[in-house]
Specification:
Elements lengths: L6 E6 L7 H12 L4 E6 L5 H11 L3 E4 L4 H7 L2 E2 L1 H6 L4 E4 L5 E4 L2 H12 L8 E5 L3 H12 L4 E5 L3 H10 L6 E4 L11 E4 L22 E4 L8 H8 L4 E3 L2 H16 L6 H12 L1
Parallel strand pairs: 1-2, 1-3, 4-6, 7-8, 7-10, 8-9, 10-11, 11-12
Antiparallel strand pairs: 3-5, 5-6
Helix pairs in contact: 1-9, 5-6, 5-9
Bound molecules: NADPH dihydro-nicotinamide-adenine-dinucleotide phosphate.
Amino acid sequence: MNTATDLYVVLGNPIAHSQSPFIHARFAEQTGQSLRYERRLVPLDGLQRALDGLLAEGARGANVTVPFKQEAWRLCESRGPVAERAGAVNTLLFGADRSIHGENTDGAGLLRDLGANLGVALEGCRILLLGAGGAARGVLQPLLAAAPQALWIANRTAARAADLARDFADFGPVSGCGFDALPSTRFDLVINATSASLAGRLPPLDPALVGAATLCYDMAYGKGPTPFVAWARQVGAGRAVDGLGMLVEQAAESFHLWRGVRPRTGPVLEALRRIVSA
Ligand code: NDP
């Protein structure tokens, strides 16, 4: 039942910068849903306590962000198949019996941004995924389901990339290695799923792997071009975009899971872009 008091939150640490309350408030206005969506700062050792408190408050669901996605996965009683395999959840649905169901909408959000917003067809593409953390885990299965010709994972800690590739090998042609062991041909799509941009840094990528036909996609976003987007433009990438579209699209997937209605994302992305750039 959708009541005026339906409460949703985003849990993270830090959390003050989160744009999720803005996005979900716009989705709710647009679809006529009555809900509150709040940010909650969770102490690093306090996820279980925060969830207990939310269940006691009668909250209906939550988003989970850095650094809690993997811990939240462990605290779910049930999970959707993509989340199950990813080992990380970003969306929680609370049952009337106080059960917690986990989903991961990061991959669906990325694919929707690439496909519907940016017009990218992944079938037959050569994809390079940078990073092997929670975000990379969440998007691997949906990316492989889109039937790329090959998907390489490169990570600073090479063993994590190799492990990740092994974990997802049954979904498609995936290989993992360090940045210095990548094949020396250009990629169609390079996705930066490292957190390097957040620290104003760049992953150590050979510019020769990027060309005029390459789309460089940074999952991070910020006021101006992220360091990776700026680097990609400088080395001649055909296109370079940040992850604001993914942020809005993954939120729309969460909203759909919670409320059963799919909001329109275009106007919300435009409004958010104006706010973030101001
Ligand atoms: P994690 O902390 O789980 O993983 C971080 C990854 O970045 C690791 O692979 C780590 O390598 C690598 N890394 C960190 N610093 C550097 C560096 N200086 N050079 C090279 N590699 C580096 O983070 P997440 O996976 O949760 O998030 C990654 C990024 O994705 C963040 O920027 C996050 O904001 C963004 N994101 C965006 C979303 C959106 O909707 N737009 C959704 C989800 C995430 P190592 O293993 O060697 O430590």
